[in-house]
Amino acid sequence: MSQTAPSEQRSTFERKYVIALAIAAAVLAVLPNLYGLIAAPPGSSYQGFQWAADDQFVYSAWMRQAMEGRFLFDNRFTTDPQPGLTIHLYFLVLGWVAKLVGIPFALALAKMIFSALFVFLAHRLIQRLTHQTYITKLALALVSLGGGLGFLVWENFGPEIERPGAIGKLLAMAGVPGVPNDVWQPEAFVFPSMLTNGLFMVSLCLIIASFLCFLDARHSWKPVLPGAIFMGLLMNIHSYDVVLVALVLVAFLGMQLIKGQMEGIWVARAFVIASGIIPPALWLVHVLRSDAVFQQRAATPTYSPNFKILFLGYLLMMLVSAFLLAKPEIRQDHRKLAGIGVAALVFAGMFFLSPAGATEGYFLSAGLWAAVFLCLCAACMLMASDVTAINLVIAWAIVGIAAPYLPALFERKLTMGLSIPWAILAAFGIGAVALHKDRSRRNLITVLTILVLGGTSLRWFFREIELIKLNVSNTTVHSVYLTRDERAILDYLDRSNAAAKRTVVMALPGIAQKVPEELDQFREPVVTDLNPLLSGFAGVYTFAGHWSETPDYLNRRNLSTELFLASTSEERRREILEIVKPNYLVTPTPDSLPGVADLSSYGKVVAGGNQFQMIELAR
């Protein structure tokens, strides 16, 4: 009888674990969707998402245009003239899929596929770091589930601390102005990304795939073309991530130079890989120059949160990774200890110098950020290892903490996947103390680590279920389910081929319903905001559709609200209609909502029911 070598047994066992984890990730990513379908109230239909519904409608609008056969997309959330030059390959392909299965199913399918693919890619990266199955398995688990302190001071809606328990009061005493970012910033953590957005997951897959190609390019030209393609796709699909990759590679380059491992041919291949961003970057520049609406959209500031909020999102993984100091080769290496000390001092300085309250604007000036970045690059260089993949992970973890404070309009976007390197380092930290324990103690340490670091992910999952039960998105003004009336309106717009006719629709902006006795709780909106929904699912143009996509959104939202109020004079209402020139109005039915005007005399009621009606305006 033949016997299998121990290394082959380990490889087989590890492969089965990776496959099982990938399947689990795919299933967990869509379990809330399945619950939403099963729990749908009679007569309603599940729209497919409950987190950041307004952003999801933007993605739906691009998919809707792809379903219409368009390759170049425009912005359906404004009535301003525009050339329509946007290319987004991810939503183009998803739109083709949606033409067969519908938008909600296509979005869910993408979450499943890219959540599973992410596990395989993360495993490939972790394999470069260690040959120990225990650390590999733990690292994969923590990468998939790792979070911060957010589960201890949880809020269902918004980043503010509304219910300050003991932990919340301690944070307030430390000058922390809100909950840690693992509560509300899904793109910065893997499991929340799996639950909420396939776009985030495909971006994380491309980031890791690009890093793997950069590593492999040291020995061969073979990964150069795939790497260039991955970088080009990343530039097109989620362009901010290219900045993060570049910052990490700068620190990584310094580490390799210090170790004498940066060959000229490797640098040349790396530049060829990076050149993959050039075609989509040039097109982006063209769009910025040619499309005034896109210019205003790109100029929407997305400031990073107070540094204390971000830091606490990763603190647990940082503390666990500190167990690496138990390894003699680190504890006795004064150079590595100095690097750790420099990074710790920079992080501490950023923590204590960040303002005590919530702020709008940039935390660091360009000069100060450059100084912080250079100090962290120096820290990485002091911590450099002979293993290139370890250097990459260290650079990603250390530089990644400062990246979101690069003073640029999109700075908050630079947290993408920051939990990944810290989760890997945390697994190595646990390995440093657990591998020498007997199996029972090691298993206990492992389970406790996953439970504590995965606490936030668990709460994300159950919040998704709770939002479905409450029939409200975390935006507070968008429902999870479509009513019969809303479905009838969408069906009418589809039948009339409204999207192809450049139809403009105005709907009453959403009105949230706060629960009086619960500080952070909302119910189904009094009025759900149908503007982004109509742009997303019907492909029509709306006047005030989205806080970022619509230029001068707040003023347009106020103008839209004014149109529907009973207190607005007929003269003023006619003036607003002349400004917008809508084809249809979507309004609550007469007497269904106090303070809202009966506008049925302005045209013909063509769709709706007891809750909403759509009026085709007389011309």
Number of strands: 9
Q: Assembly state here? A: single chain
Strand order in the sheet with the most strands: 6-3-7-9-8
Quickly give the structural class: mainly alpha
Q: Give the biggest beta sheet.
A: 5 strands, mixed
| Estimated radius of gyration | 26 Å
Spans of at least 5 consecutive residues with low confidence: 1-6
Overall mean confidence score, pLDDT: 94
**Overall 3D geometry?**
globular
**What's the number of helices?**
25
Measured distance between first and last alpha carbons: 87 Å
Helix content: 55-70%
Strand % is 5-15%
Report what the structure shows.
Helix content is 58%, strand content 6%. By secondary structure, the protein is mostly helical. Strands 6-3-7-9-8 form a five-stranded mixed β-sheet. Strands 1-2 form a two-stranded antiparallel ribbon. Strands 4-5 form a two-stranded antiparallel ribbon. Strand 8 and strand 9 form a beta hairpin. It is globular and about 85 Å long. The N and C termini lie far apart (87 Å). The model is unreliable at 1-6 (pLDDT under 50).
Task: Kindly summarize this structure in a few lines.
Helix content is 58%, strand content 6%.
